[in-house]
Amino acid sequence: GQNIDQPTEMTATEGAIVQINCTYQTSGFNGLFWYQQHAGEAPTFLSYNVLDGLEEKGRFSSFLSRSKGYSYLLLKELQMKDSASYLCAVLLGDYKLSFGAGTTVTVRA
Amino acid sequence: GAVVSQHPSWVICKSGTSVKIECRSLDFQATTMFWYRQFPKQSLMLMATSNEGSKATYEQGVEKDKFLINHASLTLSTLTVTSAHPEDSSFYICSAREGGREAQPQHFGDGTRLSIL
């Protein structure tokens, strides 16, 4: 089976920075995706890493270390609208995505 | 950007009813579509992979006779929950990927909330 771990919940203050970690042990690896999911809605794509290093996209950055089986999503200058669940997903060899359980981020004023 | 449309958004029906959910890729051809199920406060669990023109591949533990999948064209896949029961109540989400480009993200539909009374 696939093993993808991320914290269940995180809380941060508006304007702050939050880092969501994800570790994985999977049967295959063709890259790692981060998705944002608001309650009752479908996930939306945030980032994709396949090579080691940092990918930056505005307020969101994602990092990957393949040798360590580790990724993180960094959210900067937090806004209230960033309150959501963040899903780490590994792309397996046959185009399937295996998802972690998600990290619920609550942004407080 | 790529858009995936899923219909209906909400279904409430009696136990024993069969429910059909449609998933369409609006501005790209999707050789592969995926069907997920998500229970409250849990992550997405892949149910099956749907390939255009061929039989769907089901994940372990998913009953293929209960969850019928048809992928008749490059832009449409359907999931039919046959003889639905209360335990089938869940959030069903489809996603689609453009063919031939492995690194492309899956694009998700808005999901269908199914409630069986």
**Total E-strand runs of chain A:** 11
Helical fraction of chain A: under 10%
Q: Shape of chain A from CA axes?
A: globular
Cα(first) to Cα(last) distance of chain B is 37 Å
Query: End-to-end span of chain A in angstroms?
Result: 40 Å
Q: Unreliable runs of chain A, pLDDT <50, ≥5 residues?
A: none
Our estimate of the beta-strand percent of chain B is over 45%
Q: What is the total tally of β strands of chain B?
A: 11
What does the largest sheet of chain A look like? 6 strands, mixed
Rg of chain A: 13 Å
Which structural class is indicated by helix and strand composition of chain B? mainly beta
Average pLDDT rating of chain A = 94
Low-confidence sequence ranges of chain B = none
| H-E order of chain A | EEEEEEEEEEE
Assembly form of the protein: heterodimer
- Main sheet overview of chain B: 7 strands, mixed
Strand content of chain A: over 45%
Number of helices of chain A: 0
Outline:
Chain A contains no helices and 11 strands. Chain A is mainly beta and 109 residues long.
Write the layout of secondary structure elements.
The complex is a heterodimer of chains A (109) and B (117).
Chain A: E1 3-5, E2 9-13, E3 18-25, E4 32-37, E5 44-49, E6 53-57, E7 60-65, E8 70-75, E9 84-91, E10 97-99, E11 103-108
Parallel strand pairs in A: 2-11
Antiparallel strand pairs in A: 1-3, 3-8, 4-5, 4-9, 6-7, 7-8, 9-10, 9-11
Chain B: E1 4-7, E2 10-13, E3 19-25, E4 30-38, E5 45-51, E6 57-58, E7 67-73, E8 76-81, E9 90-98, E10 107-108, E11 112-116
Parallel strand pairs in B: 2-11
Antiparallel strand pairs in B: 1-3, 3-8, 4-5, 4-9, 5-6, 7-8, 9-10, 9-11
Give keywords.
heterodimer; A: 109 residues; mainly beta; 6-stranded mixed β-sheet; 5-stranded antiparallel β-sheet; 11 strands; B: 117 residues; 7-stranded mixed β-sheet; 4-stranded antiparallel β-sheet; globular
